[in-house]
Please model this.
Amino acid sequence: MNKTILLIGLLLGLASCRSSKITKPVYSKAPKAEILIDSVQAAHFNFNWMSAKISGKYNDPDQSFSFKGSIKIRKDSIIWMTISPGLGLELGRILIDPDTIHFMNRFEKTYYKSSYADLSEKIQSPLSFKRIQALLIGNSLSEFELKKYFCKLKDQNFMLSSASPKQLKKLDRNKRKSDQEIYLASINPQNSKIISQQYKNLKLDRTLTVKYEDFETHDNKQIAKSIDLKVLTSQKIKLSLSYSKINLNKEFKFPFSVPESYEIIH
Model:
């Protein structure tokens, strides 16, 4: 009798576990592009001040290294980073403002600064302060300045593009490649967060791809703790970045003082 009661209780428990299981919604079509854009912008990670610990890995044809460090951001104003090879010694310090990128190499005792135009030419990918900031916090790299965008459903994610599928095929087949920058994004339908985004330039055979994972909620907004960046041109550049100990809306300073003994690199 006790065994029968135990068996019935076990079956009821399993049934309740099944019934409480959360099922993801199934989507049959994508929304209109303008509705999706509004939703993506509403889900942007907004803040005034942000700091975090970082760790990551960098690869290009000439070098590969892992690093740790810290990042501080004052929205639309300053991005500050320190980089260490993991031995406790600071390798370098980066300061990015809306006009210039500054880098101080503490090992080689050198200081370098660059305009966005010069650095964009060197890495063959367009850069700006707003794009770097958006990339680091998982917001859209595009400001959606074009009048028309296209949206479709793929693998239960919403795909947003600045060119239609027909236009993409036509551009790809055309021998005279267009210099147009094509924006592509994959978006989570449930929270409108960007899972991946990409800029392609067919004429220059250049692609910038960023993927986001491990989302964490802060102040009712979600931010990806893991970022993978890949730049494909005549060479391949890869950067993986992970955040920990994210802290928001606490004011701080951005120490960046270059000693007079440092060599200035032009």
